[in-house]
Amino acid sequence: MAQQVRAVVARSKGAPVSLETIVVPDPGPGEALVKIEACGVCHTDLHYREGGISDDFPFLLGHEAAGTVEAVGEGVTDVAVGDFVVLNWRAVCGQCRACLRGRPWYCFDTHNAKQKMTLTDGTELSPALGIGAFAEKTLVAAGQCTKVDPAASAAAVGLLGCGVMAGIGAAINTGNVGRGDTVAVIGCGGVGDAAIVGSKLAGASKVIAVDIDDRKLATAEKLGATHTVNSRSADAVEAVRELTGGFGADVVIEAVGRPETYRQAFYARDLAGTVVLVGVPTPEMQLELPLLDVFGRGGALKSSWYGDCLPSRDFPMLVDLYLQGRLDLDAFVTETIALDEVEKAFERMHHGDVLRSVVVF
Ligand code: APR
Ligand code: ZN
Ligand code: ZN
């Protein structure tokens, strides 16, 4: 029997979100129904609301979530009723050319629930990133659920579902940061801060935080940055070189997504170093670099999709580290809010006041 639950919906472009009653179908083959316990508010939700991602309104927002599996459809064996899970937006297919080559974190054919959740008048909803978890319950593909230790706080580990995983993964998966490496992170929002935490976890000897906002640098320092650079008042490239014996960092993580910060990342890295782009650019942005420098400086220029994570591999591991006190995910939860406070949280996010507001149910 389909169920009716409360959820946050973006009905039209730019309009404030509203609390609505939605209809959630019973899980069909390969699907799972999840009772949401917590869901973080991410910039991407705001982008959806502003029509920056697609025009498929109405959207069901929310995608950084943890909860409990309430029901599973036919053929689901990886998760079971009662499992505590973190949701992900890249359920890998196991069959595309990336999966078949043993690189499922690049999967080119990730999937979501086949059935649609709707408004009570039957209007189909588009779940943000195929999740839609600002809802008491949501329907996803079973592969979007990763079982983790239920002792963990849902508000904290739900954040692994998106931005925090992107940042940690940019450092440990894409950038391959290892013991003794020097790292610079440009842009210290939720993603950049997670890259700082990931670098520290991986044993970086120096983690240099670069931002244009002193408040962000103060938080970055709390999370483990060893040095901070305000690139409004100092030249970011010069500053990073100075802090690394004149050479540049082994790995520079760009967590803004702009050509000028990418250029800083490119030149702030040591010869043969690695640049990781995890910030997401917009379609009109262009990058110009001397090709001779691209060749002559060597190394690797990489992009990081969702931290090149494999949820089944990375989520349980990171939750274990969290429970052991080695990964402070609680530090990313600035405030917990109620379901009807998402619009207010967008406002605070827009002003740069919070790392994450998290809806708890
Ligand atoms: N130089 C350095 N830092 C900058 C610059 C700049 N020119 N412009 C902005 N920043 C800083 C902001 O001050 C802020 O601290 O970058 C940070 C961006 O953080 P958020 O807006 O909180 O974004 P976040 O959620 O961390 O995501 C970062 O990754 O997933 C993508 O779409 C996302 O592109 C975005 C990026
Ligand atoms: Zn695949
Ligand atoms: Zn997100």
List keywords for this structure.
alpha/beta, metal-binding, Quinone Oxidoreductase, Chain A, domain 1, 2 domains, seven-stranded mixed sheet, six-stranded parallel sheet, oxidoreductase, GroES-like_sf, 26% helix, Rossmann fold, 361 residues, binds zinc ion
Summarize the structure.
The protein has helices at 43-49, 97-100, 154-158, 163-174, 190-201, 214-222, 236-243, 259-267, 291-296, 311-323, 342-350, and strands at residues 3-10, 18-24, 31-40, 59-60, 64-72, 84-87, 118-119, 126-127, 137-141, 145-147, 182-186, 206-211, 227-230, 249-254, 269-277, 300-303, 335-337, 357-360.
Describe this structure in words.
Strands 3, 5, 6, 9, 10, 17 and 18 form a seven-stranded mixed β-sheet that branches. A six-stranded parallel β-sheet has the order 13-12-11-14-15-16, sandwiched between helices. A five-stranded mixed β-sheet has the order 7-2-1-4-8, with no helix packed on it. The protein has eleven helices and 18 strands. Helices cover 26% and strands 26% of the residues. With 361 residues, the chain is α/β, with parallel strands linked by helices. The chain is globular and about 65 Å long. It folds into two domains: 192 residues, Quinone Oxidoreductase, Chain A, domain 1 (Alpha-Beta Complex), CATH 3.90.180.10; 138 residues, 3-Layer(aba) Sandwich (Rossmann fold), CATH 3.40.50. It binds adenosine-5-diphosphoribose and zinc ion (2 copies). The site of one zinc ion has 10 residues, from helix 2. Its cofactor is Zn(2+). Pfam families: ADH_N (PF08240), ADH_zinc_N (PF00107). It comes from Streptomyces mexicanus. Keywords: Metal-binding, Oxidoreductase, Zinc. GO terms for molecular function: mycothiol-dependent formaldehyde dehydrogenase activity; zinc ion binding.
